[in-house]
Amino acid sequence: MKRPFTSTKIPRLAGALLALAILLSACGEPTPFYPTTRVMTITPTTGETKMPPTAAAPTATLSPTAQVYDPNVPESWMYLPVIPEGVSQRVRDLYEKGKTSGLNQEAFSKVGDCETYSPYFLAPFDLKASGYRLGAYSSLGTVISGYAGSFERASQAADPGASVAWVLSPLLADPAVCRSNETPLICEIRIHKPAVMLVMFGTNDVKTSTREGFEGNLKRLLDLAIANNVVPVLVTKADNLEGDGSMNAIIARVAYEYELPLFNLWRAMQPLPNAGLMDDGIHLTYAQPYFDLPENMQMGWPVRNLTTLQMLEFLRSELE
Fold first, then answer.
1. Cα atoms in the Cβ-side hemisphere of radius 13 Å centred on 126
2. Residue among 267, 282, 227 nearest 113 (CA)
3. Percent of the chain scoring above 90 in pLDDT
4. Fewer beta carbons within 10 angstroms: which end of the chain, N or C?
């Protein structure tokens, strides 16, 4: 019989080397950027779209015609939609198991690096209503109330220097709340009991792991989440720090192999100035989550927050 909340021990030397690698990783806390925001009078658009409205010229050329994803064609992940068109039977079965295994169907967890740990990511939706404006996306209010408490929560499985290996290492778990030999990932599952987990890695892994190592660790993470009946959602990263898109290609291929939802954040960022990234090519550009201000929707953070809410809305509509 499967033992829930299991973790894997790793040697202390390996843990020390991992900690050193994290210190040398690419993704850290950026210098805060708070642009001046003008209040503009606009006419809200009717209906909702998967992609937020923007007037920026795209930074990548994508075919307007639908293409079938082929895991044997590395670049084909770029054509995957931001929000998937449906979920597999495996995901539906996993979600149903979660209902009977003590998971909280009104909770999700954030698992990832600096851009996941950041208070810019989703936290405003738990703080106060004046901190965000949904505009034409008013239906997302149901998602915000449905997952209340998960948006602001500091996940045990998110850290500014995190890689996939970090979240699998018991030596890097918080001893104040995590059990002995418990990994950050398993600690987060045990404490928060999320039905859904947003998995967002790849940036730090460019410098701390080989492509093969990243894929192997990502699969270990998914195996542990699935063994505990949590639905993992894989998310492509906005940057291309590796230069050839290979990390996102791996993320897409693994999602395909595991029959899991893929949230293609990279594609949502492409129409934005500099693909929604600061000059360092890593961190997202900042503006408050005012979805009714066109100038705010030219920035990376509002678009990431909007599309993440849409992803959560999609999952609730498919699974409940």
1. 15
2. 282
3. 77
4. N
Span between the terminal Cα atoms of the chain, in Å: 28
Tokens matching residue 95: 């979600």
Q: What is the DSSP string of 84-131?
A: -S---HHHHHHHHHHHTTT-EEEEEEEEESHHHHSTTSSTHHHH-GGG
Contact criterion met (CB below 8 Å) for 184 and 172: yes
User: Does the structure show a pLDDT above 60 at 139?
Assistant: yes
| H helix runs in the chain, sequence order | 12-23, 89-99, 114-117, 124-127, 141-146, 164-167, 184-192, 205-208, 211-227, 246-258, 265-269, 300-319
Three-state DSSP at 230 gives coil
Cα separation, 37 vs 295, in Å, equals: 8
Chain center to CA of 179: 25
What's the token pair of residue 212? 């093969």
For position 28, what pLDDT does the model report? 67
